[in-house]
Each structure stands twice: as C-alpha cells, then as structure tokens.
Design a protein that fits this description.
42% of the residues lie in helices and 16% in strands. By secondary structure, the chain is α/β, with parallel strands linked by helices. It has a single domain (2-208), classed as Rossmann fold (3-Layer(aba) Sandwich). The protein has a seven-stranded parallel sheet, with helices on both faces. α1 (15-27) packs across α8 (193-208) and α4 (90-99) packs across α5 (111-129). It is globular and about 45 Å long. The protein starts with a strand and ends in a 6-residue tail after the last helix.
Length: 214
C-alpha cells in the first residue's frame, strides 16, 4: 500500500479538490484506492455525499484524530491511500507525514502559500533526518501563467529546498474544478480536456518517478 499525502498547513490551497481528482484518476486505472479525509471540515466527505449514486469514484473515509491515524491506515485494504490533510493542525500533519510514502505540498501562486509550505517541509525533513523515507514534491495549483507571481512560481526558481522538487505539471485556475467538486464528481467526468490532462499528467509524473511502485 502506498500512502500519498496532499498537504499544506495553509487553508484554501485547493488540497481537497486535488485529492479527490488524484484519487479518482488512480481509482479509474483499476487500483484499489481509498481517499482519507483527515480534515475536520470534511470537504472530501461532503464531495462524496454529493456524488450521483452511479458515479465511479473511490471510497472516502474519515480519520480526523492524529492518534488514530496509523492504526486506521493499517486496517485499510487498498493499493493507494490518498490523504486530504487539514490546515493548521500540526499534530495531524505530523502524523500524516510520519505515515506517508509520498507528500505533495500544494501551493498557489502566492507568497503566503510559499511561506506556509515551510511547515510541511520541516515535517518532511524531520522524518528524513531520523532515517525515514518519503518522496516529496511541490504541486502548483490554480496557476494562471499570466501574473508575475504565477510565472515565478511555475518557473520553480523560488524553490531552494534540497530534496523537494517541483512537479513539471501545474494545475490551472479553471472553474471546472469547482463545478466538478460541487457536483460530487471529478474533472474526469467533465468536458474540459485540459483539466483532465493536468490531473492525468500528475499521475504520470508520479508513475515516471516510480513513487507509486509497491
């Protein structure tokens, strides 16, 4: 079982939207996927509750207590577990990073997002410092490619963290993501080919890096 954390201590970065779409994409590859909603706000749970009955989507379960996380994860029958991490919950974030094999640190094109990502980076580095293994990368979300800050973040030159690269794929600032979320669906169910390709390309990057190998 591979555990993928979608994380940033800052709220509003779009973690839940990415978690639902990444989990759905791998589910539709035929993998046994469980999406863990570790956020007390329950966005992923609300998304799944809004889904049409016939929707082809992964199971969503709630684990919102840090002390229960490790044991609950061990009980899951899954090939892939995607964890939608909460904001401003250091103990849960630490538990998630401790359990995860892969961490995708979600940032939007803003200085605030970059600054906030330092908390997740510290947890990743702390795990590595004591001999733990975890792959990690930044994933840029809601990028326009038009503004100066977007261009700077997409370029990746801001990233001075050793051992945490930035995925080549960026997720655009597209209304289809919000529309799919509200409908309890994935962008894979929508007509926006570019949005579909962006999610597909994230999975391809993870596969190419062999981060999903058992």
């Amino acid at each position: 079982m591979k555990i993928i954390a979608i994380i940033n201590e800052k709220g509003g970065t779009g973690k839940s939207t990415l978690a639902t779409n990444i989990a759905t994409a791998m589910h539709r590859q035929g993998k046994r996927v469980v999406l863990v909603d570790a956020d007390p706000q329950g966005t992923a749970r609300d998304w799944r509750a809004a889904s049409p009955q016939e929707a082809d989507l992964p199971a969503v379960i709630a684990i919102d207590r840090a002390q229960n996380l490790a044991k609950a994860l061990q009980s899951l029958a899954a090939d892939i577990v995607v964890i939608d991490a909460p904001a401003k919950a250091e103990s849960m974030s630490a538990a998630i990073i401790k359990a995860a094999h892969v961490a995708l640190v979600v940032i939007q094109p803003s200085a605030a997002d970059v600054w906030a990502s330092a908390a997740a980076v510290r947890l990743i580095q702390a795990k590595r410092d004591i001999g733990g293994e975890i792959e990690a990368a930044f994933l840029v979300n809601r990028a326009s490619g038009i503004t100066t800050i977007s261009k700077t973040i997409i370029d990746g030159a801001w990233n001075e963290y050793e051992g945490i690269e930035q995925l080549t794929t960026t997720i655009g600032n597209r209304v289809v993501f919000a529309n799919a979320m509200a409908a309890g669906l994935s962008v894979l169910d929508m007509s926006d080919a570019t949005a579909k390709a962006e999610i597909s390309n994230v999975i391809k990057e993870l596969e190419s890096a062999q981060w999903l190998n058992h």
